[in-house]
Specification:
The complex is a heterodimer. Chain A is an all-alpha fold. Chain A is built from 3 helices and no strands. Chain B contains 3 helices and no strands. The longest helix of chain B is centred in the middle third of the chain and has 26 residues, at about 30-55. The chains are: A mainly alpha, B mainly alpha.
Chain lengths: ~110, ~90
């Protein structure tokens, strides 16, 4: 196991950790706007970390420009999609989570919006 | 190293399957759209890992097209949900 593979493995492990964090946030958080935050974070940070690890693993070859293209496009489209989904939820009047007992009202409110 | 990459790909694919739970129970349509978007990104990363597991470099082109399709689906569907059926430019 060379140093190159060790660096690539470390980047992949960091990326997998951030994907696990993003999945946890997507499942556990109470609100749509709160769930939007960790999922877009795990897209940009975890995905680009794995892609950088694969760039290190590939060495000098023609895979590097394509990986750079995929990583740049991932940075672009994750932010764009997060903004579009948040805008669609906000303009439709989706209720926001409050700490008081009204948190049960989040279920099934989307139909009347 | 190949076994390690296979393990990382399996972990990410398992995460994608767990994310589908939110797409099933999500209270609003935007929640389901968000879960499907996250599953698409994780599939993109798995395809990039499969490239280096099997040493087939054409999978990178598949990953690029997959990213483009994922972006188009999410932006168009969220625009559709925002205007509730292409009713016009102004929203409320």
């Amino acid at each position: 196991m060379s140093a190159r593979e060790a660096i690539a493995g470390a980047f992949c492990a960091i990326g997998a950790l951030f994907f696990i964090i993003g999945t946890t946030g997507l499942l556990r958080l109470p609100d749509f706007f709160a769930r939007l935050h960790p999922s877009t974070k795990c897209d940009t940070l975890g995905g680009c970390s794995v892609l950088v690890g694969m760039m290190v693993y590939a060495g000098w070859s023609w895979e590097i420009p394509r990986l750079v293209l995929i990583a740049g496009f991932l940075l672009l489209y994750s932010a764009t999609c997060g903004h579009a989904m948040g805008r669609s939820g906000f303009l439709r009047g989706m209720p926001m989570w409050k700490k008081e007992p009204a948190s049960e009202d989040v279920e099934g409110v989307g139909e009347e919006a | 190293m190949r076994d390690f990459l296979l393990g990382v790909a399996l972990i990410i694919a398992l995460n994608a399957f767990i994310c589908l739970y939110r797409a099933v129970i999500g209270p609003t349509v935007q929640d389901r759209l968000l879960a499907v978007n996250v599953v698409g990104t994780k599939t993109l990363i798995v395809v990039v890992l499969v490239t280096f597991i099997f040493n087939e470099s054409f999978f990178l082109d598949v990953a690029m097209v997959y990213a483009l399709l994922n972006m188009v689906v999410t932006v168009v569907l969220s625009r559709y949900l925002e205007t509730e059926g292409w009713r016009g430019r102004e929203v409320r």
